[in-house]
Amino acid sequence: MEDQHIPASLFDCPVVESRPVGAYRLISFVAREVAALARPGQFLMVRAAGQSLDPLLPRPIGVHELESDLVKILIEPVGRGTISLAGLRVGDRLSVLGPLGNGFDLTGEGPALVVGGGIGAAPLAFLVRALAQRGREVRCLLGFKTRGQAVAAELFRNQKVDVYTEDASMGEMGLVSEPLTGILAEMQAGGPANAISTAGAVGDLRAAEIFACGPDAMLAAISGIASDHGANAQVSMAAHMACGVGACQGCVIRTVDGYRRACSEGPVFAAGEIAW
Amino acid sequence: MKASLHTSLGPLNLGHPIINASGTFDVIEADRILEADLFSDFPFAAYVPKTVTLKPRTGNEPPRLYETAAGLLNSIGLANRGIENFIVEDLPRLAELPVPIIASIAGENTSDYGSCAEMLAGRDEVAAIELNVSCPNVELDGRALGCDPERTARAVSLARAATSKLLIVKLTPNVTDIVAVAQAAAAAGADCISVINTVHGMALDPWTLKPVLGHTSGGLSGPAVKPVALRAVYLVSRALDLPVIGMGGVTTAQDVLEFLAAGASAVAIGTASFRDPVLAARLAGELRDLMEIRGIYSIGQLSGMA
């Protein structure tokens, strides 16, 4: 969504923190250039450095947070690539290509409703912080299947987040998309949630805007709700990738204008562009 | 004494034997996205853009990629913007590269090869044309045109009639007798043979147990297919008096050395570029080291040692 181009490079990065966060693993590594350049919603192609051919390729992983020279990622060990990444320990090295992709467009001025599902919550910590730093009112909803995943909400340090779990083991019970209609209407009406909205904004910029990352079904539901309420929504789409730099045509997303590459034309798309 | 990496594909001279496999490296996109200035510091000895077809193709339904043990399954389906867009939009930019361009074309039928070759015949930017008769992702049964020696010969002779440019024919390993197809291509006027394209394969989702790829079946690449490729290079280069470009799982300088020893005159890097986007820039120097410690000082001396 942002057009401004930031050049990406390949880095060999030492892991300085590796700890479990419920069902996930938080990995921090030193990558000064990436930390200086990355924007919320951008991703990195990451693999354990070394000669092992299995797993073979890096995996696209969203930037979870930045802290001075450190880049943090959150890994859900579900396949051969992510299981390998979750096995990294302090002192191991990571091969990192990035920052890649367009990232979220933060230029609006209205209140922001940030919605994450499962591991899709990971890149939103950085986003929520960046939106708040721009003076935007932010409300954040995170949905998870279980408590094991939901403890990741603790990573949203100083931000207030509303947690939903499908099994009621933490926060409210249900899908995160369920309360969305009411909350969005409340924000658009300038209700309590809108109490500190930016003054002096004009036109569409002032409208409530949704930012979302999570499973396709969640994003599709959010897109429908946004469309019903005339709200702008930006969604970060996931796809298997090989190159990460626009070459292989492997990570395409079906949009109303045909297939688009998640790596080089995304991963963030306007919800209305996606052919759900 | 310093080993020379110079090699040639017929009249086409290359500074070293390492080129890219079609569809695995997009220099225009990579130059836009990466910090590196690829147009002045290009790592390959020639550039092979993604295969183009007469008409634009949207490609196959996603998911199009799935990683397997030391391998990558893909079912891209020759997604491309068509040869006209390639000629008008990409070629002028690609002409700025410091290396020869090997355009790659494919057809939905044999006559497309003649039409595409004719459109490229007058383009000075194009040093050679690769006929991709081996994409496994166009039909569900994977019956690439290159599975049939007669259809391969027909496609090659139509392209041959359209241009005097160096014609490279890229073959599929998904046949009983790859030498028979290579001989048919040679008899029809091919100048060079490229082996291999990807190997038929499929994968099931571990949970649903349904095919992962939207196209059900795909093509396997990466280190897993290296022995299949090495054998094809060995057989084709012995049977034919034409230069061979070897590819399939090449990941290290040792792999390059082995493909040259098996009979290749040049070697292409594909999936390995996804794993390590700066690999190609290192390989030539590493290859020279591997040659020198064996007392080999030219590609000609190495070629066919196996």
Secondary-structure map with pairings?
The complex is a heterodimer of chains A (276) and B (306).
Chain A lengths: L8 E13 L2 E7 L1 H6 L5 E6 L10 E4 L2 E3 L2 E6 L4 H7 L6 E8 L11 E6 L6 H10 L4 E7 L2 H4 L10 E5 L6 E2 L6 H9 L20 E5 L2 H13 L3 E5 L15 E4 L2 E4 L6 E3 L6
Parallel strand pairs in A: 8-9, 8-12, 9-10, 10-11, 12-13
Antiparallel strand pairs in A: 1-2, 1-7, 2-6, 3-4, 3-7, 5-6, 13-16, 14-15
Chain B lengths: L6 E3 L2 E3 L3 E3 L6 H7 L31 E4 L2 E4 L8 H12 L6 E5 L4 H12 L4 E7 L16 H14 L3 E5 L7 H10 L4 E4 L3 E3 L16 E4 L4 H14 L4 E4 L5 H9 L4 E4 L1 H5 L3 H14 L6 H4 L4
Parallel strand pairs in B: 3-13, 6-7, 7-8, 8-9, 9-12, 12-13
Antiparallel strand pairs in B: 1-2, 4-5, 5-11, 10-11
Walkthrough of the structure:
The complex is a heterodimer of chains A (276) and B (306). Chain A is α/β, with parallel strands linked by helices and 276 residues long. Chain A has 2 domains: 9-100, Elongation Factor Tu (Ef-tu), domain 3 (Beta Barrel); 112-236, 3-Layer(aba) Sandwich (Rossmann fold), CATH 3.40.50. Chain A has a 7-stranded antiparallel sheet. Chain A has helices at residues 32-37, 80-86, 124-133, 147-150, 180-188, 216-228, and strands spanning 9-21, 24-30, 43-48, 59-62, 65-67, 70-75, 93-100, 112-117, 138-144, 161-165, 172-173, 209-213, 232-236, 252-255, 258-261, 268-270. The longest helix of chain A is centred in the last third of the chain and has 13 residues, at 216-228. Chain A starts with 8 loop residues before the first strand and ends in a 6-residue tail after the last strand. Chain B is of the alpha/beta class and 306 residues long. Chain B has one domain: Alpha-Beta Barrel (TIM Barrel). Helix content of chain B is 33%, strand content 17%. In chain B, the strands form 3 sheets. Chain B has a 7-stranded parallel sheet. The radius of gyration of chain B is 18 Å and the shape is globular. The two termini of chain B are 23 Å apart. The model of chain B has no long low-confidence stretch (mean pLDDT 95). The chains are: A alpha/beta (276), B alpha/beta (306). Chains A and B meet through strand 7 and strand 14 of A and helix 1, strand 4, strand 5 and helix 8 of B.
